[in-house]
Design goal:
This protein is an alpha+beta fold. The protein folds into 2 domains: 181 residues, no CATH class; 100 residues, Alpha-Beta Plaits. 74% of the residues lie in helices and 8% in strands. It has a 4-stranded antiparallel β-sheet with strand order 2-3-1-4. The chain is elongated, with a radius of gyration of 34 Å. It is a multi-pass membrane protein. Keywords: Cell cycle, Cell division, Cell inner membrane, Cell membrane, Membrane, Transmembrane, Transmembrane helix. It is found in: Cell inner membrane. Belongs to the ABC-4 integral membrane protein family. FtsX subfamily.
Amino acid sequence: MANMTNKKAAPKRNAASSSNPFSTWWNQQSGAIKFSMERLWFNPVSTWITLAAIAIALSLPTSLHLLLKNMQTLTADNREIPTITLFLKQSVTEQQAKDRAELLSELPEIDNVRVVTRDEALADFRKITGFAQTLETLDENPLPHVLILTPRLSLLSNLDMDIDSLSKKLKTYPEVDDLQIDVEWVQRLRGILRIAERIVLVVSILLGMTVLLVVGNTIRLDIENRKEEIRVTQLLGATNAYIRRPFIYNGIWLGLFGGVLSLVIVHIALLFLIEPVTKLASLYGSTFILSGIDVLMTLKILLASSVLGIIGSWIAVGRYLWQDDSVIR
């Protein structure tokens, strides 16, 4: 009796599962995913050539963006904030220099003040120039006390105007003999970075269109090879969504795997650049280290490459379906 009940209940469960919209949707998606993966590697040589073209097209804007990101750290780092050097008069004593430094540190425009005494400056000059014996012949130290000021950039909305007004204010102090602003290189670098941002944007758009063309052309060739199969499927009642689905997944795989391959290319290039860049930075007394691609940037690249694959395949399939409908009409 129990066996008969189970036999009668089994068809009911199967009917319920078949009528479940999520189960039906998932079966369609899983079938399209499996078919697209098999179709992707049906011709491995052609697939690898397509993936290589996509990877090269994606690796160039990725490398430019990474280069721009590393250059921006030169101006974002607090240690690289432009400084103002105050050369005090020879008559100013060390205590007077420290008193003036303490007063300057209380200004809202100043973040930090460092005092370099004439003895410290002379010792540094000896190390840099190597004229130790010549300097010993002098009767007195010719170097003045120096104050190195770091502006508070958070309060300076306009770097050019505010630094200029601050320098005029500092020149009014009686202890100040001369003033030097180390800001020109920052202005030039920021100007270069603004141009570089535009270049990276233009290159990214152009190479993104290249990826669309590569994916679209690959899907178009696949459609041509399967044209008779698609016609038969349409005669059996297949909808446009059913026909489009495996090609969309095929575009996703092309974009995703091409993005992964582009990341591999960029990482290999970084391995070749880390050592010479570190040596060059050490020659300038900097601790700059070339940074790589973080997790967020990796996800963005993979997402962008997948979206480009979807758009390229959607355009190719949509164009075929539109032409096919026109012929039928």
